[in-house]
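Chain A, query sequence.
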Amino acid sequence: AQVQAFSAAIAADVLVIRAEQGFPFDPVVAEARLAALKRLTLRQVQGRHHVHLDDNPGEVAALINAFLQGE
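Chain A, predicted structure.
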């Protein structure tokens, strides 16, 4: 509940990039936390936990750039 309360107070745009084979989270908890974010952009990419370093850095960088440019 505390994480959801803090997340609900975030007024900025938020980008979450999830790796398809990423760290295993409880799906109910993860979805509740994401739902608390009012201005969420959620993207999923092919790769593992360190997708931004090892598996798919180009796609992650492109998603971040597009988010920062408002696309």
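The mean pLDDT is 92. The first helix runs from residue 2 to 8.
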